[in-house]
Amino acid sequence: MPFRKRRESLQSRARQAAERGFHRLDERLPAADAGKLLRKAFPDHWAFFLGELALYSLIVLVITGIFLTLFFDPVMAESTYHGSYGPLHGTRMTQAYASTLRLSFDVRGGLLIRQIHHWAALTFVAAVGVHMLRIFFTGAFRRPREGNWIIGVTLFLLALLEGFCGYSLPDDLLSGTGLRTADTIMGSIPVVGTYLSFFAFGGEYPGQDIIPRLYTVHILLVPGILIAMVTAHLILVVFLKHTQWRGPGRMNRNVLGQPMVPQWITKSTGLFLIVFGCTAVLGAVAQINPIWNYGPFRADQVSSDAQPDWYVGFLEGAMRLMPPWETQVWGHTIMWNVFLPAVVLPGVLFMGLYLYPFFERWVTGDRGEHHLCDRPRERHTRTGLGVAAIVCYAVLLLAGGNDVIAFGFQLSVNALTWVLRVAVVVAPPLAFFLTKWICLALQRRERERLTEGDETGLVSQSVYGDLSEGQRGVAPQERHTLLARSDPDPLELVPPGAEGLTRQDRLRAALSRWYYRDQVKMPATEEQREEIAVLNAPPRD
């Protein structure tokens, strides 16, 4: 009995101590809300792991980058090489290049970490790009997630900058060719271009300051901004909740899925281990960026068939396809053949990405909150625009390696360049109309299934000799998914025939008709339409 009372007394005091500790923690941190976070629902669909793939690639980048930072020397002072790599003995090179060679051949595991870092960088940029495509094609950028879309576009832009800076640090002949291209791009900007180049390189190209400055940007400035924006992005995801695919029980006002603990955290941890393992295997067996084959950078040399990493290959391709147009103005040369493809094109591209959510809201007049994902076929115009942009990017990426393609297939470089020039103009519109046609055909097929049902493959014959195909109705769950979609109509700004329309109003109405033209309506009854309206109703405050 005394032992029992003593045990109960200890349990009571431990409980009181835990309560006091929790209250004190909650006074300083939102500990009471942590339980809600642990119960947060995550949609159970593979597409929602694309963002986590980018996040875990970034973590691998940070871990391997810390290791590489300990051995890299970002100095452009030259010396004679007497390291482990025999073919370059006695060669003059910068400390940056020599330290990269030392890291690759003399540091235990250095080459492996270098290659893991490079593969993780490619994976990170690719994952961010594919994640943004998922957001775009499903309409997950609409209210209230416009801010998160802007953060995502900025993250993609910073990832491109970070990749270019890291790619240029070894100061080999290939990366030096890329820096030469960057110097040309900066110099093509009218009025201020030469000043920008002079500032970046610390004098006339190649200068003595570009590698130390890129090093600071690569390990300090951009990573800090990236981590801050990723944190803001995740906070907004938690605050605004996830989008989800349509289905029974899924509405604008809820999220159905698995809780954060233990299901989601288990899957997410497994994904991180897979990402780390795959990049480690690639780093071990797939050689990438062998700088010792390129040699140190020399301003009077250019690496033959030089190709940038894929994420900036479209800029290289755009410059190769641009005709050699130049204009002389007051003794100054404006290089349109560099300025338009390398400055104007990416500027227009990213400005379009930043503004697209607001453009679509203006055209469609849709200002409601959306937490249910669109199926790409249901927004045929948006899907067509996205596919056209992907095709345009693919053509420019091919053009970035036109010399390699021509050499490998024994083609004329000039002929191939002209074919790609035509393709970059013709292929995107064709892709748009073909994609739109496919989306509308899929919509009509779904309408046919809802009205006539699915074929069973059985044919029956009546006593009179008539033959008929067997049909069965669409499953209730799939029927709900097909019907529970919003079918907005084009904007009607004013009654037909009214006067006083501005040009902006007429343009908006025309774009709205173009956006929703040929939309196939689903055969929903009035009762079903009321139910759909309830499912798509915005959440209450």
Summarize the structure.
This protein is mostly helical and 541 residues long.
3D architecture notes:
The protein has about 550 residues and is mainly alpha-helical. It contains 19 helices and eight strands. It has helices at about 1-30, 35-40, 50-70, 95-105, 110-140, 145-170, 175-185, 195-200, 210-240, 260-285, 290-295, 310-320, 335-365, 380-400, 400-410, 415-450, 475-485, 505-515, 525-535, and strands at about 40, 80, 90-95, 260, 325-330, 330-335, 455-460, 465-470. The strands form four sheets. A two-stranded antiparallel ribbon has the order 1-4. Helix 3 runs antiparallel to helix 5 and helix 3 (about 50-70) packs across helix 10 (about 260-285). The model has no long low-confidence stretch (mean pLDDT about 85).
Write the layout of secondary structure elements.
Layout: H1 2-28, H2 34-38, E1 41-42, H3 50-69, E2 78-80, E3 92-94, H4 95-105, H5 110-138, H6 146-168, H7 173-187, H8 193-201, H9 210-240, E4 258-259, H10 260-285, H11 291-294, H12 310-321, E5 326-329, E6 332-335, H13 336-364, H14 380-399, H15 402-408, H16 413-452, E7 454-461, E8 467-472, H17 476-483, H18 503-516, H19 526-535
Antiparallel strand pairs: 1-4, 2-3, 5-6, 7-8
